Amino acid sequence: MVEMLIAPGEARRWVGSGMRVGIGGGPVMVTPTALIREVIRSGARDLHLVASSTGGFGIDLLIGAGAVASVEFAQIVLNEFGPAPNFRRYAESGRLRCLDHT
User: Looking at the domain assignment, is residue 6 inside a domain?
Assistant: First the structure.
């Protein structure tokens, strides 16, 4: 496997509309926030996210930005801060395809 490192600003070149994107980290801590913000700035839409293993803040940001069509997850929460508000709102309204893998 080839190791590849990119600067956060280069994420725009690598993520496009309709792609499947894995998001690591945790619900609140260790979230790749700088990369997620660059994906939002890129204008990518209809992303299919895969949370590894528990999603939270970063995935909620992408959903709230209107960039996400579907998400695969075990849970998406903000730990002691409660449910992820954008995830919940989009899921309950039917605007988000949810694939629950609990």
Answer: no
* pLDDT tens column, 52-81: 878 899 999 999 999 999 999 999 999 999
91 lies in some domain: yes
Nearest to 30 by CA among 68, 64, 56: 56
CA distance 34 to 45: 18
Cα–Cα dist 54/79, whole Å: 10
Name the average pLDDT for the chain: 91
Q: Considering its fold, how many domains does the chain have in total?
A: 1
Residue of 43, 6, 42, 39 whose CA lies nearest to 22? 39
- According to the model, what pLDDT value does residue 62 have? 97
CATH code for the domain of 47 = 3.40.1080.10
The whole-model pTM stands at 0.90
